[in-house]
Amino acid sequence: MKLLSTPYQDIIDAIKPAAFAQSGGGAATRQVYAFLVGINDYPSPISELRGCIKDLDRIQSWLSSNVGDRVHLRRIENTDATYENIKAGFREHLRKAGPEDVVWFHFSGHGSEEQTAEEFKATLEPSGKDQTLVCFANQPDQRLHMADKELAVLLQEVASLDEQGQAKGTPHMVVSLDCCHSGSGTRDLDLLEGMKTREGSGIPQGTRAEIAASGKLRTLDSYADGYYARQWKGGKGSLEVPISQHVLLAACESVQTAGDMSSGGIFTHGLMSALEQSKGEINYADLFSLTHSAVFGMRKEQNAQFEPIGNFYPYTKFLDGQPMGSPAQYEVEKERKKWVVKCGAIHGLPVDPDSPIKIQIQEYDDRSSNLGVAEIKSTGAQKSVLSLGEGDQVPGGATLDPEKKYKAILHYLPVPKEKVWVQGEAGRITKVSAEMAPSLYVEAIEGSSQPQEAQFEVALQPEAFVLKDHIQKRTALTEKIAPEEEDSYHLQVVEDLEKMVKWHRTIRLDNPKSSIADWVELELDVMIPGHSPRIDRHKGTSIVLDATKTGFIEHEGGLAAGFQPKMIVKNKSQNIYAYLLTLRSNYAIEAFEGEVVFRPKEHMGDGDPEIPLLKKPIGWGLSEDEQETFAYFKLLVTTEELDFSQLLQNGVGDKERDLVFDWKPMEVKNAWASITMRVDLHR
């Protein structure tokens, strides 16, 4: 199930600076509002399950031991887990969470698919299917399915409203789903002995035509108490699935089933084992990695899913949101007979380096350990093969255990460092230059005159530092240095410079020899609101828009419109995985939504399908004091799933000025391509 999430708002009300920073607050004061739903005892003809209540018991026990009296728990199970009661749990319990609190929704039960409303099929859901949580229903008037689009509305309500319906800030939100279709689809697979699947077996099925003829096809007003019907306005409005900031942990991918045993779900077992082992001292990226490995170890056909949605930053602490860990660390494990590191060309590694790429291998949970330095033997698209000695030994170092997972950091990258001219007071220059010395990305150039080859500049002023980007020919950041930061500001300088370098390298990321480069095209719809909304379609690698002439809406000096990127599919021979990154002018790399999957079987007979890359357009434009701004849309297309969370980063100095808000044959393997589009706005 793809969770999409922030509702359409009139653009006049929505124009405001972006507020995508992770919530603050300390772990000692944050309240945790947990809502746990589990169903074993489905009524006939739906097959019963065995481990869902055990899942809830295990989560509740962990919360009690690790979070204590900060937990506010609501739990419903079996006959109480109806569609209406699940809705009530969101609205009466989870909406109590304030902007400094934490929300965790967990569902264990059947997942399924249902034919979507005609209006969705014609606009947002060309597959014609909703992914659903299967609720308890044994009465004719009880609804069986809760669609992904309804869950998105409920999450957005939790993100923006309190229980009285008053506006509030967004809490830190986590969603975990242990059911089939949690990754958008299912198929029958061989099962472990003693295991069932959490697929909604026994649910009446039929073709779309048969269901429509019977009068049982869902109508638009049946979703989320008429939320989408109010948007649609009988065809005079638009349909947009709201997007709220949260992280999704799901049991399986779109073509798999989720395993259920009497002791609990395989996914929940893996998730809770990772949490129990770490006692919650873990970030979301590491939590997923350990969960994925545990699930895969029990059942090779079940591939757990991880998606940070709405610019949720995954390198933050579980149920807390404070920064923890870094995307610069990569998993190392043995696959078949080879040791691999989960880092490749799509992460910026050179395919044919002049000298070897070296990585330092560490224990997974001990970043201070050093097991030795290994070389990358061959660079793949998303994984690279390591060169180890006999018996899995790191050259001159430790022997690795094939049953364990390790981490690595790049020790040497055979790509030239970017040169930084450092000027200012001598003592400060020494501190900043020394911090750059071990960096993979930047090196300091000192002197009285600016060298022509410097890509970046640091001006160390008496009470501030200034970062300049000579590639973009602009000042990137001016940051004051408080007296208490005098001993540590140089760390922030180098961290921001490294973000700037990685931002530029991500823009340049390309695969000119890609075998799938011509499979898709990227187009951008600019949506100008009004009584008859105008949509201007743009192609190409560079677009320049005069916001005044284009007809952007003006409000309190700001100018903005809606932006909807679309992928045009030219080759329908196999599944295509697409990831849209937005590279902001403040050097942030963001993903408003997660993975978008094109499946040929869902588009039989179509010409060149148009796949929206966002279920809800981005509202973007110039703030009151801006004359121009820009952003890049970067589309990565792969033939296998990509852990795109490693590509994300926050901006430098958190200085956002532009407006961003919620607008209302043979399969090719291990291949990838990219398309980059720059959009400039001017008054």
Please give a structural write-up.
By secondary structure, this protein is α+β, with helices and mostly antiparallel strands. Helix content is 18%, strand content 30%. The strands form 7 sheets. Strands 24, 25, 27, 28, 32, 33 and 35 form a 7-stranded antiparallel β-sheet that branches. The protein has a 6-stranded mixed β-sheet with strand order 2-1-3-7-9-12, with helices on both faces. The radius of gyration is 25 Å and the shape is globular. The protein starts with 10 loop residues before the first helix and ends with a strand.
Task: Give a brief rundown of this model.
The chain contains 12 helices and 36 strands. With 683 residues, it is an alpha+beta fold.
Spell out the key features of this protein.
683 residues, globular, alpha+beta
The whole-angstrom Rg is 25 Å
Whole-number mean pLDDT: 84
Beta-strand segment tally: 36
Give the overall shape.
globular
What's the helical proportion of residues? 10-25%
What profile does the largest beta sheet have? 7 strands, antiparallel
N-C termini distance:
41 Å
In DSSP terms, counting alpha (H) and pi (I) runs of 4 or more, how many helices? Answer: 12
Percentage of residues in strands: 25-35%
- Helical/strand content category: alpha+beta
Layout of strands and helices, then pairs:
Layout: H1 11-14, E1 32-38, H2 52-66, E2 71-77, H3 83-93, E3 102-108, E4 111-115, H4 118-122, E5 129-134, E6 145-147, H5 148-160, E7 172-178, E8 196-197, H6 208-213, H7 227-232, E9 246-250, E10 259-261, E11 264-265, H8 266-278, H9 284-298, E12 305-309, E13 329-335, E14 338-341, E15 358-363, E16 372-379, E17 384-387, E18 406-412, E19 418-424, H10 426-436, E20 442-446, E21 456-461, E22 464-469, E23 474-480, H11 489-508, E24 520-528, E25 534-538, E26 542-546, H12 547-550, E27 553-555, E28 558-569, E29 576-584, E30 589-590, E31 596-598, E32 610-612, E33 618-622, E34 628-638, E35 659-662, E36 672-682
Parallel strand pairs: 1-2, 1-3, 3-7, 7-9, 19-20, 19-21, 26-36
Antiparallel strand pairs: 4-5, 5-6, 8-10, 9-12, 10-11, 13-14, 13-18, 14-17, 15-16, 15-18, 16-17, 21-22, 22-23, 24-25, 24-28, 27-28, 28-32, 28-33, 29-30, 29-31, 29-34, 33-35, 34-36
Helix pairs in contact: 2-8, 8-9, 10-11
